[in-house]
Design brief:
The chain has 304 residues and is mainly alpha-helical. The protein has twelve helices and seven strands. The radius of gyration is 23 Å and the shape is elongated. The structure holds zinc ion (2 copies).
Length: 304
């Protein structure tokens, strides 16, 4: 008898953890870079410093990339396990005899190779993964193997890692919008168990703000429904949920739901709130803002 069989949900949850870890690494690198350029090193030109910074970040980014591949593998296995987990342990000819004579743990079995997962997935699941995903999956797998088996891995930029993470999430982990998932994970983090949840919202806002800067307008639209070409405002709900102790600059991620001039319904894809704002000029004459809510200007954050 085969025992300790993981469920589809176990695989999926493990995949979410891996992709979240990859996200943390990539976003931390972007944050470190912002801080490093703020406290610029003497004697180096900005170009040299930038090159040097990203060269030294390669092992971390390669690790993040590898986590994305693993996360996708777990998600695919989770979907297959929903049909039957036995499909994952291949040919019964290779099964341990102990399973038939006594018990054998699922973990002792060799599971399907990554290269076969999409084929098996599409053979047993009604909604197949398309060719675009297949090409993406093959590329990530090849790049990951290149990292593992080559002394000189190619250059991974934080932007490439962020885009790869968001593409993987879009196909395999999109049952919960990513910003909502990030907020949940921060509020449930190890720091939260010690009572430090103050920074959860602040951290997620700044991570998403940084990620969006790495995306093309089409990618921002696809992954977050965010229109980079339109005006953006600070979301008052996110702002008041965040910790203001260490931060003056806030990402503007809320947008009006319609393009109509004077629109008042402002939507934020991070907290998923839509709020009604007042369209009057900010009291600060140097500010062009004309959207006010909760007593602050949603452009400059000054109290009204
Ligand atoms: Zn918000
Ligand atoms: Zn203002």
């Amino acid at each position: 008898m085969i025992i300790d069989i993981p469920t589809s949900a176990d695989f999926h949850a493990a995949g979410v953890k891996q992709v979240h870890l990859a996200w943390q690494i990539a976003l931390q690198s972007l944050r470190d870079y912002d801080e490093a350029t703020y406290f610029k090193l003497d004697g180096e030109t900005p170009e040299e410093a930038t090159e040097d910074f990203w060269r030294r970040s390669q092992p971390l980014l390669a690790n993040a990339y590898s986590l994305i591949q693993h996360a996708m593998e777990l998600a695919l296995k989770g979907r297959i396990a929903a049909i039957t987990p036995y499909l994952l342990i291949g040919d019964p000819k290779d099964w341990a005899n102990s399973a038939a004579t006594g018990t054998a743990s699922f973990g002792e079995f060799r599971t399907l190779d990554a290269v076969d997962l999409v084929k098996v997935h599409n053979s047993v699941i009604a909604r197949p993964l398309d060719d675009v995903f297949k090409a993406f999956w093959d590329q990530v797998r090849r790049d990951r193997n290149r990292i593992m088996h080559s002394a000189a891995p190619g250059t991974f930029t934080a932007a490439v890692v962020v885009k790869t993470i968001l593409t993987a999430i879009d196909v395999l982990f999109s049952e919960i919008p990513w910003p909502r998932r990030l907020l949940q994970m921060e509020y449930e983090s190890k720091f939260a168990s010690l009572g430090f949840v103050d920074d959860a919202h602040t951290k997620v806002l700044s991570q998403i703000g940084s990620a969006i800067r790495e995306l093309t307008p089409a990618e921002a639209k696809r992954f977050f429904g965010f229109d980079s070409k339109r005006r953006t405002y600070l979301c008052p709900h996110c702002y008041f949920a965040a910790n203001h102790d260490w931060q003056d600059e806030w990402p503007h991620l809320a947008q009006f739901k319609t393009k109509t001039p004077g629109a008042t319904s402002l939507h934020c894809f991070v907290c998923e709130w839509t709020i009604e704002v007042e369209r009057v000029a900010c009291k600060d004459e140097t500010c062009q803002g004309d959207a006010i809510a909760e007593g602050i200007c949603l452009t400059c954050t000054r109290t009204q």
